[in-house]
Amino acid sequence: MALIVQKYGGASLATPEKMLFVTERIIKEKKKGNSIVVVVSAPGDTTDELIDFAYKLSKNPDEREMDMLLSTGEQKSIALISMALIDKGYKAKSFTGAQVGILTDKTHTKARIIKIKGINKIKEALKQGYIVVVAGFQGITEEEDITTLGRGGSDLTAVALAQALKADTCEFLKDVKGVFTANPGIVKDARKIDVLSYDEMMELASDGAEVLQNRSVEYAKNYNVKLHVRGTFTEEEGTIITKEEDIMEKVVVSGITYNKKEAKISLLEVPDKPGVAAFIFKKIADAGINVDMIIQNISQKGTTDLSFTILRKDIKKIEGVLGEIRKKLQFKKYLIDDKIGKVSVVGVGMKTHIGIASKMFKALADKKINIEMISTSEIKISVVVREEKVEQAVNAVHKAFNLGQKALSVEK
Amino acid sequence: MALIVQKYGGASLATPEKMLFVTERIIKEKKKGNSIVVVVSAPGDTTDELIDFAYKLSKNPDEREMDMLLSTGEQKSIALISMALIDKGYKAKSFTGAQVGILTDKTHTKARIIKIKGINKIKEALKQGYIVVVAGFQGITEEEDITTLGRGGSDLTAVALAQALKADTCEFLKDVKGVFTANPGIVKDARKIDVLSYDEMMELASDGAEVLQNRSVEYAKNYNVKLHVRGTFTEEEGTIITKEEDIMEKVVVSGITYNKKEAKISLLEVPDKPGVAAFIFKKIADAGINVDMIIQNISQKGTTDLSFTILRKDIKKIEGVLGEIRKKLQFKKYLIDDKIGKVSVVGVGMKTHIGIASKMFKALADKKINIEMISTSEIKISVVVREEKVEQAVNAVHKAFNLGQKALSVEK
Fold first, then answer.
1. Which of B90, B89, B70 shows the shortest CA–CA distance to B133?
2. Number of A–B residue contacts, CB under 8 Å
3. Among B153, B174, B195, where does a domain finish?
4. Do residue B170 and residue B249 come from a single domain?
5. Which residues span the domain enclosing B255?
6. What ipTM does the predicted assembly reach?
7. What is the pLDDT of residues A66-104, one digit of tens each?
8. Which helix (H) or strand (E) holds A204?
9. pTM score, two decimals?
């Protein structure tokens, strides 16, 4: 008999019909003789609707009250799923974050979990045969104020509970069957990945494939919690995410990911002297703008060109910041290019294999796709190309690394 | 500086605009230098919508989970009202029933308040200058399960808090300006009542004028909490409800009330022997049917006729019960009449004045309105008439007792 934590997202809970489907899915797992803890998000668009309502009352809603408001969404889900389970003849019991004592710090709207004080309440209910249904996303401070864990926080609740309960596995039930080698929407023969390391998952998730919240994967890595991303509508195995050492056969490249959310900022003829980059990126960070890739060209005539990418939504904000920086640094001018796309190759095997980058670059060159920026990490190589070339680039690279279904069947 | 508990119902909180209006109303009271505790219901139709959703998942929703679900409605209201108050520059803080420790028994969906454990949390916040916003309708058991107090339970929360805080007054802000001598919709010159005793309020509320939940008035009576029913849209004084001894000038009749929700059941030729009535009404009570008025005629030839009124919604249910009773008792037949109306005269002065009943009967007789049943209590006389005569009857009695505005101005 295994102890399984199952997490269902808001899209799976949007209507009574979908909730009944989720109920049946939980019962299937229970019937196998397993102990089940279910973690749920708020139904459908509930959270967004609550936020909209709040902004009608305040341009800048108080964060303590925002948490009080938003936590009602998950509370609705736990009550409804539990009553549906009870209706089908199963013992079920719902708990809010407060009731199981998910203790957090006081950082409202993005609190961090400190510990789970009421874990024995869950253990006791499991022992009595209950399916335990816990509200994701929410916690409570020492002062009993309600907090929330930030977007995607229900994933974190699931992982934290799995860790505290020493669960055998923490399942994330999704519309998709697992994590794919590339977005099946643009790569026809993209293949479901059987197993991934935590680091690979994080690198894949940080771009397009937003399957799991990265903080949750990091938490799982720190505590070695085995994750399983699988489909709500199938009983097939999905993608297991586990520690690198446990992955028997390390593939060189696990997947290709991309995004079209970034813009490239170039500062031309920046005075090239110590402390300049530090100054620039401090100013940008202070404005709350996240910088992704950074490239600095070789210096010529005492100046250098500096390029970096930011999220497009921050373009307006950065223009003000760049104006300020220019007053101080007197660079020549800046360019903003929001027609770029980023394509990345991810795989733990890269650490030990050479030639991955050049293989990627050749695949792009063969298709005459120009590379505008390059950045590499231990298990990821990213390039910036024209936005309209992204789909072509992903397909070319996917093929070059033999990631498709056909390639796999040939290999076997 | 006074300490005031203000309770706002769901209709006042149905939209962001209405919530902003309520916010301004609270601020007006705060600006007078008073300490304010606000108790709110769920916004608009939220509770009914949640119930509808629940019934899509279960024909017979588990009551613990129902309470978990319904309590989210009030939690939304407290968060939204608090953020609106903060937005206007006031210190405000919301609390759920659990957070202020409104301890109840375990009777889910209609729990009774045992005590308020966290009252010091509210006192502390008030001392720090906060407007405290508390979720009505909800409590928590010793085991930390969420409970609700039944329909109208937010009124009870307000009264219980007012008692525990020793508040100067407990205000109920309504669409109407107070309690009226009769429904202004049918009696043109109905007048707002300045002061009522708890008993009068209960008798008035038990019929048409559902201004306050009766359990709350009873609670207020037991603990001597002064209530004030007043308009949300005016700053005029409304109706004060207080103990009889504090009412300086006791009027004979305070108001006329009516309802058209009941049906008259008549059992003909029931064997007249000891224990028969007990048997019949035990059976009816066991079926969960509330009986209001009961009349038994004089016995003739060893049988008697028995009439009583029940709510029309219970007609279907009582037919089954009467079938059963008949098997045992062999009465001749039963009649169901759902075209009746009940008109009542309420007033503490009745206790010491004679002739109230005859004055009422004469007013009806003058209008040729036939009286079908009569029942009297210490401070109330009720008659059953044809449903279509109710408006005429209320007006006639209202006039007979000189309750109108004109009458008042003449008296002065």
1. B90
2. 112
3. B174
4. no
5. 245-412
6. 0.85
7. 999 999 999 999 999 999 999 999 999 999 999 999 999
8. helix A198-205
9. 0.86
